[in-house]
Amino acid sequence: MAPVTGTETPTGSPTETATGTAAPATPHTRRRTWPGYTAAAAALGYAAPHFWWGAGVAAMFPGDFATAPQGNTEALIGYWVMGAVAVCGAVLSLALVRPWGRRVPAGLIAVPAGIAAIGMTLWGFTYFAMQYLLAAERVVSSPAFAAKDAHPQAAWGLFWYSLFLLWGITLGIAAWQRLRSARR
What span, in angstroms and rounded, lies between the C-alpha atoms of 135 and 129? Predict the structure, then answer.
């Protein structure tokens, strides 16, 4: 009987060595898992400020925090629920690339992740398309939004919507890879 070596299994996860420790990840494994880890990091990057905004900390808020909802149902949903949903999104992203996520059928995990990825990517692209149209004076912001758009903190919107693009694109790649690996 040959000794167990640290080779990669067909699922892309490293096997255990004869000593019982996990073998180091191969470049092939890292190439297949980075989208899930990146999507999870983007999800947590989106969740964290929602929690601190819900706690009343204005740091990095994309607009005038003084006029933002505070202490009502809208604030509860906008800060705490959205933060919790983003944490769930991070877990979903990791489930696409971690061995424990292989216990869930690929279609049950990758299809909803792919749909979410399309929505987030479109949301991010739409923001940047609108910013371009506003800058090119092809559209004019309504008076209700003009003051919000002119606020110095509104520049944080560029960061947050870039995060949506990163999250959506990498989640989509991870979902696609998960579906492809399940078909093999």
Answer: 10
